[in-house]
Design brief:
This protein is α+β, with helices and mostly antiparallel strands and 280 residues long. The chain has a domain of 180 residues: Thrombin, subunit H (Beta Barrel). It is 37% helix and 27% strand. It has a six-stranded antiparallel barrel. The chain has a six-stranded antiparallel β-barrel with strand order 6-7-8-11-10-9. A hairpin with a 2-residue loop joins strand 3 and strand 4.
Length: 280
């Protein structure tokens, strides 16, 4: 039995070897491909099917994102961004306040020794008309303010307190016609009054001795105890004498942009104690 199998196998191998020698090489390749093609196709289809099943199972068992949690996270990020913007604005406002106080303190030390207390304040409101005629600050009688107190920013004048409440005050700015400030021209030394006209410029009244020129500086004269002397009001932009007129027509541009102020400094005279009467 074993010999028969041996001779059968030997004969088959011999015939296959003879066929490989006799037949062309392309013919052999074709026979091999014909035998293996069904197996390759089956393997390809099986692989594709397994991959599709794996993808479907992955989608089925994968964790779906919680849309509600994502929305809450987005809202929290937006809230934190708003808080950051607010804190940055407060920081910028504090830096401006410190800068204004430092400039005014240096100016006060250099130019006058009058006893004045400075009260920093924030602008919390403006007049309903939207002009620069009236502003509201967050300091009042509880902080020492009173009607007639001068308001400055740095070295420049802003206006005068007209009504002081306990924790807030109304201020007529320089551009308000009701605001009249004693002033003088630095070059000529002539004193007069400066008032607003509800525009972004000021008017200087009753100047007739010395000719004023554009570019001249207008400063506070220190009279009426509203402002100390030499606080800057603005610069002369127009000065002319109309035909037949006695007084010059003088227009002044304020040093500050009064409609953009966010912080100011109130000048409060410090109380001086009266000397007590000595006994005989």
């Amino acid at each position: 039995m074993n010999r028969k199998r041996f001779w059968f196998s030997f004969s088959f191998l011999a015939a296959a070897s003879f066929a490989a020698v006799i037949l062309p090489q392309n013919r052999i390749k074709a026979c091999v491909l014909t035998c293996t093609a069904p197996l390759q196709s089956s393997a390809t289809y099986a692989r594709a099917g397994l991959m599709d099943v794996g993808a479907r199972l992955g989608k089925l068992f994968s964790a779906r994102p919680d849309t509600g949690e994502l929305e809450r996270a987005r809202r929290e990020i937006a809230r934190l961004r708003e808080l950051l913007i607010v804190e940055r604005s407060k920081t910028i406002e504090r830096e401006k306040m410190i800068a204004g106080l430092a400039v005014f303190e240096q100016f006060a030390a250099e130019h006058y020794g009058q006893c004045l207390a400075v009260v920093p304040a924030r602008v919390i409101g403006r007049d309903a008309a939207g002009t620069a005629g009236v502003i509201i600050i967050d300091k009042g009688t509880a902080h020492g303010l009173r009607a007639g107190a001068g308001i400055v920013w740095g070295r420049a004048a802003v206006g005068v307190v007209t009504l002081a409440g306990k924790n807030a005050s109304f201020v007529n700015t320089l551009t308000n016609p009701a605001c009249k400030i004693p002033a003088y021209i630095q070059r000529t030394g002539e004193s007069t009054m400066v008032g607003g006209n509800m525009t972004d410029t000021l008017l200087m009244h009753h100047v007739f001795r010395e000719r004023v020129e554009p570019g001249d500086q207008c400063l506070t004269s220190g009279e009426l105890s509203i402002f100390p002397r030499d606080i800057i009001i603005g610069e002369v932009t127009e000065a002319r004498l109309p035909a037949g007129a006695l007084f010059q027509k003088i227009t002044i541009r304020p040093r500050l942009n009064l409609s953009a102020l966010q912080a100011v400094i109130a000048l409060v005279p410090e109380k001086t104690e009266l000397p007590t009467k000595m006994g005989p």
